[in-house]
What does this fold into?
Amino acid sequence: MKIRKAIHAGYCWGVERALDIVTDTAAAHPGETVRTLGPIIHNPHVVQSLEEKGVQSVNDLDEMGSGTVIIRTHGVPPETYEHAKAKGLNVVDATCPLVTLVQNKAKQLVQEGYHLVIFGNPRHPEVIGTIGHAGGKATVIEHPEDVEKVHLPKRVGVVVQTTQETELLAALLAHLAPRCKEVKIFNTICNPTIERQEAARELARDVQVVIVVGGKNSSNTRHLAEVCREEGATAYHIEDATELDPQWVKGIENIGITAGASTPGWLMDQVVERLEKIEPAV
Ligand code: SF4
It folds into this structure.
């Protein structure tokens, strides 16, 4: 069995930056309450390791009476900063600068008079935060074909969730173009996402099975699995090596492995080690 890793996989710089911010903040406030608002990244192993170091996550600011709250990579609406400050909390912002860019572009489109369309998952915190920064008014399109189900004015401005799949964006535009007189789009898919998707595509063309490692609630990891399937490979999305089923790779000669932007390298290494135990490399 041959195992190949995607050339771009695992932690992106936005996630590394956020984890450094958490570590530095905890070190700067020993003995004080330091919490992240929501899990800092969509990876349960990393979140658990931070909890062991005393940095828990809260789902709501009202779960905190005092201390420091860290805003995660996905960002939050402006009201959340205001609420935290009104409660007297110290706010440390780990929003990824590429998410801030989406928020700013959304605001710009609204100021220019476009009806804002956000192409992404309406339940994802990045999309919820972006709506807030754009003044609360936007149409969120989750699937390109959903364009046919909503009423849109003639002038629309589009921003895209950073972890969206690039091929789906082309499909969205094909649906929008016949329905609108003017479409202004900022392709805000972030570069680490594009690199990981391209690397996953390339890998999936050369192997029969791809193991995609990352949190089940991580959009960019889920998209990597979809991209591999689009290229004809069988893709399995797992959170760690314990989920690996030996039957998936039985008799398979070429296996690929990739990981989402919130997956630490050691989790990928453990999956490779387990694969090598199931069937020794040739
Ligand atoms: S996936 Fe992109 S937007 Fe999200 S944290 Fe990484 S670099 Fe930032």
The first helix runs from residue 13 to 28. The chain has a mean pLDDT of 94.
